[in-house]
Structures are given as C-alpha cells and as structure tokens.
Amino acid sequence: MIPMVLRKNLAPLAQRFISGLSAQLKRFANPVRTQALAAGAASHPRGLVLQKMPAFSALLEEAQASNSVRPQAVAAAPTTRQEPSVLPQSPASHPPTAPPKRYMEYTVKPGDTLWGLGVKKFAVDPELLAKENSIENPRRLEPGQRLRVPLRTASPEQTVVASWYGQEHHGKPMANGEPFNMHAATIAHKELPLGTKVELKNPQTGQKVMAVVTDRGPYIEGRDVDLSYGLARRLNMVEKGVGKLVMRVLA
User: Cβ–Cβ contacts within 10 Å for residue 216, how many?
Assistant: First the structure.
C-alpha cells in the first residue's frame, strides 16, 4: 500500500512519465520523422537510439526525496478498562466485653456482719456485697444464709515484699477462724479475700509455690505478704527473713 501523502506526490510524476512516452510514440507515428530517424540510425554505430526516458523507479525516489513529511506509524495505545478499586471490608468491630464475674459461696456464721465479711474477710466493698445478694438491711444476717461473694480475676504479676511467721503463731486462730499451721501453704495478706489462690515465685532461684490467703497481715510497714514457715523454706527465704517475690493472683 502506498501512503496517501506519497500518492499525491506521485500523481504529477506519473503524468510526466505518460506525457514523455506519448511524445516518443508520436515521433514514430510521423512518416517523415520515421525516415529521418531511420537514416540517422543507419549512420549510428549502435543503430536507432530513442531518447532516454527517466525510469519510473527514479521518479519514485524523487517523489520520496521531495516528500518532507514521513508518515509515522502511530500505535494506538491499548485502552485498558480500569475497574473501580474496592477496599476489603473489615469485619464489624465489636466493643470488648467484660469478662464474666466469678463468685464464691459463703455460709453466714453466728456473729458475722456484712461489714466484717466485706472488709476483713473478703476485701470486698460491703455495699457491693449487699447489692450482689439483694440485702436490704445490711445489719441483719441470718446464720446459715448463703452469700455470693465476687472474686477478683487473675491479675498480672506484681513484685511484693514478703516475710514469714512460724512457731510463735502455730496453732493460734487465723482470720478465717482456723488454727494456723506453720507447715501449710498459707499466707497472710492485707486486702485479698480469704481463700484467694496465688502463685509465688522467687525471681532469684525460679522456685514457685501455690498458696491460699487464710490470714491478715503483715502489719509492719513496707511489707505486703506474710508466708508460713513451710512456704518460706520452699522459697529459700528462711535465713534471709525478708525478700522480694513475684506474686500472681489466680482465683
């Protein structure tokens, strides 16, 4: 296929070629002219010589040279369909739910008061204890009455200052009403409810023990926990007397 621009330039050149060819044919068609040419051909060593016509290929090269505009092949840019971007839908976020409360059951004994049970025994706000058990008159508790006591959930580890007590208090009543056994796995704490289970760890030796809060104390400033003699031996604290432990509330 010949480009449109080149085709326009070839039109006049083709016309020139055809005109020249027609002129040559007219020369041969004239008898007088033909005789003269024949006479000249006889005297010419190479015979009859026609007037040289420019070749069509030369005309084509001339047309291309005169064409200052080169057809450029323009590649159409492929059109791609852009789909609308859709962001992934994140699942609906729900507010964190509070962990369910845990309770222990306690049977009221003669002489128990709501204030004494809340503050001294379980370290629970007496008003909360009354609300949990729908008690209208906090001054009246009936022996044998069952109470639901809310328990604290497990807490992160915390460092406490611990001491121990033994022979002098052995057999004496503790805050929970039972006699103290210096060899049992029990501790005294100022605030944790009686019956709370804890884990104690000696950070220097890695030794761990399980214990139950059965008593109140210690009452010396700067100390957080009193261990029974048996626990102090297992945690390698008898000789030291006072030291730091890592405590974690379990239930």
Answer: 19
